[in-house]
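Workshop exercise sheet. Pairs work together: one partner reads the sequence aloud, the other fills in the structure field after running the prediction. Swap roles for the next sheet.
Pair: D.N. / O.F.
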Amino acid sequence: MIPQALIDGLIAGAVIGLGAIGVTLTYSILGFANFAHGEFISWGAYFALAVSSLLGYLFAGLATPIGPFSFGWSLPIATVAAAGLTAGLALLADLLLFGRLRARRSAVIILVIASFGAALTLRNLLEFIFTSAPAYYTRSLQIALRFGHVRATPDQLFSLAVTAVLVAALHLLLTRTAIGRAMRAVSENPALAGVTGIDVRRVMRIVWILGAGLAAVAGVVTGLLVQIRPEMGLDLLLPLFAASILGGIGSVPGAMLAGLIVGVAEALAVQWIGAQWRAAVAFVILVAILLVRPQGLFGRTE
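Structure field:
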């Protein structure tokens, strides 16, 4: 049972890692903990549901399952659209709320409290539009593939592959491109980066786009493997922050690795202690890291 718990934990941890990357980028470059990030996960999942349903209605062939997977081409197309729509939602939130607060030089705590308000607004708006009833991308049943003593469905393996590709692409973006170097410069010292000619506002917009886009993909993966609910982002919020702090603020590989660690820890807790204690695991990890190594695994001491 332990190997199976490890596989289940890695799959759950991949989702946590994707969301944690957005949290760590937002914190390191925008300078505050965005508690509305979980809602971007929920909105991304519902955006994909709406687009996928529309495509399936207009083009029935797109809803036909692809090979061993439970979904058709309508879902990958809808995921790309959902990433763009969620990025637009994040930019709108920044334009109407966070950007105005930054322009007034509001304290960090004001931005954090504002993100709480934004999260409540987005969650209730989502529930108002789509209701609180669970939804699904597909109800097709899958036969799990066996690998020795462990099992995994094609959808789960696909989700792991997508996560790996996205993390690798983002790492290359941050380390091998001009915009990646600009993002690192703004993370180190926004004022100095602006003096050297870097467009700080453009960098901030790109951070919103990347973070929200990854959150949307995390939402789609969660909805594909479990179900879609307005509270799904809220349920993931504590694990996201635990992973971002464990990995070290600003470290994309650290956030991904920490997400896997949190996911595996939760799966083992379910196996050894009971499912009712799963939610406490992320909190225990968060407190332990803050006490033992506040800078995280890959973070640097200020």
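Discussion prompt: The radius of gyration is 19 Å. What would you look at next?
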